[in-house]
Write a structure and sequence with these properties.
Length: about 110
């Protein structure tokens, strides 16, 4: 069984689907073009875990990145994706305070 973890939960992949197909089935929006590891447009950050590629991608993959169009978790992976239409993580108050102090110094 393969499990995908995201910022807002986790889900099991069906036995015959790629990580991209599973993410789409769950309502996640991941950009893609080829669905075969050629173009690299689905490149996603792997936060934790490992993946196995169903086919070796031709697109270059940096360390810490994966191409969900042609891989599956092995056995688990946490990826940096959000549900379609959702905004990013809430900024921490510390970051907001630092930004406010910066603007005060400027003006």
């Amino acid at each position: 069984m393969s499990r995908v973890f995201t910022w807002d939960g986790s889900f099991e992949l069906l036995s015959d689907e790629t990580m991209l197909e599973g993410l789409e089935r769950q309502g996640y929006e991941v950009e893609y073009q080829c669905r075969a590891g050629y173009c690299g447009s689905c490149r996603t950050t792997l936060l934790d875990g490992e993946v196995s590629y169903l086919i070796e991608p031709l697109a270059y993959v940096n360390p810490g990145e994966i191409l969900p169009c042609c891989c599956r978790p092995a056995p688990e992976a946490k990826v940096d994706v959000l549900v379609a239409g959702q905004k990013g993580q809430e900024p921490s108050p510390e970051i907001d305070d630092e930004t406010e102090e910066f603007y005060e110094k400027l003006f």
